């Protein structure tokens, strides 16, 4: 299974809104498989297509390695849209394979409802909460060109600014393949 290099904070593709998928062909299926392999190789629980250099509205999630979430099956969401968010918000620490070794507390809705298409282009909806909802929101943001570090407090932003610049210039230590700077 092919492992793809992961794009890094500062790369243009991660700031672009991804394009809708109109057809899931053999190539797309291959890409989705490679996204799962790439995510697992990097010990991630979610990965968006632009994180592997693909301008497509697709993300994959597998939260089953997390304690308490073993029963949640791996999922691929094509053309996702979050259609409902709870007023109830929670704070959770987040990290990102494209922002290596940086973690920060982010406040987001606790529960969400998301509409998406599966690989047969069937339209489905899913309700999620807690960590699962968190990962979906994080990945959905990637498809819109948004990072979790955009959503932290101004105070926190000041604290991570230097680190983000270091990441941008690829002064990072990671144990998974990363893409060349664009
Ligand atoms: Zn991320």
Overall CATH architecture: Alpha-Beta Complex
Order of helices and strands: HEEEEEEEHH
Please indicate the percent range of residues in DSSP E strands (runs of 2 or more): 25-35%
Query: What class do helices, strands and sheet pairing give?
Result: alpha+beta
The radius of gyration computed from the alpha-carbon positions, rounded to a whole number of angstroms, is 16 Å
Number of E-type strands: 7
For the biggest sheet, the summary is:
5 strands, antiparallel
Helix-strand layout with pairing:
Layout: H1 26-41, E1 46-48, E2 58-61, E3 75-85, E4 89-96, E5 99-109, E6 111-117, E7 123-129, H2 130-143, H3 154-168
Antiparallel strand pairs: 1-2, 2-3, 3-6, 4-5, 6-7
The protein binds zinc ion.
Zinc ion (ZN) binds next to helix 2.
Structure overview:
With 182 residues, this protein is α+β, with helices and mostly antiparallel strands. The chain has one domain (12-168): Peptide deformylase (Peptide Deformylase, Alpha-Beta Complex), CATH 3.90.45. 25% of the residues lie in helices and 28% in strands. The strands form two sheets. Strands 1-2-3-6-7 form a five-stranded antiparallel sheet, with helices on both faces. Strands 4-5 form a two-stranded antiparallel sheet. The mean pLDDT is 97. The structure holds zinc ion (ZN). The site of zinc ion has 5 residues, from helix 2.
């Amino acid at each position: 299974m092919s492992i793809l290099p992961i794009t890094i904070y500062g790369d243009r593709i991660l700031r672009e809104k991804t394009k809708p998928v109109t057809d899931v062909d053999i190539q797309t299926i291959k890409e989705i498989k490679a996204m799962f392999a790439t995510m697992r190789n990097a010990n991630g629980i979610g990965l968006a297509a632009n994180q592997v250099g693909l301008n497509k509205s697709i993300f994959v999630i597998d939260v089953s390695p997390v304690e308490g979430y073993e029963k949640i099956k791996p999922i691929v969401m094509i053309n996702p849209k979050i259609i409902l968010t709870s007023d109830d918000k929670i704070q959770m620490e987040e990290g990102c394979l494209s922002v290596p070794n940086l973690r920060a507390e982010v406040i987001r809705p606790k529960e969400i409802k998301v509409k998406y298409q599966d690989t047969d282009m069937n339209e489905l909806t899913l309700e999620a909460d807690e960590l699962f909802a968190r990962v979906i929101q994080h990945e959905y943001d990637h498809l819109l060109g948004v990072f979790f570090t955009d959503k932290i407090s101004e105070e926190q932003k000041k604290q991570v600014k230097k680190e983000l610049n270091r990441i941008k210039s690829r002064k990072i230590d990671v144990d998974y393949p990363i893409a060349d700077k664009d």
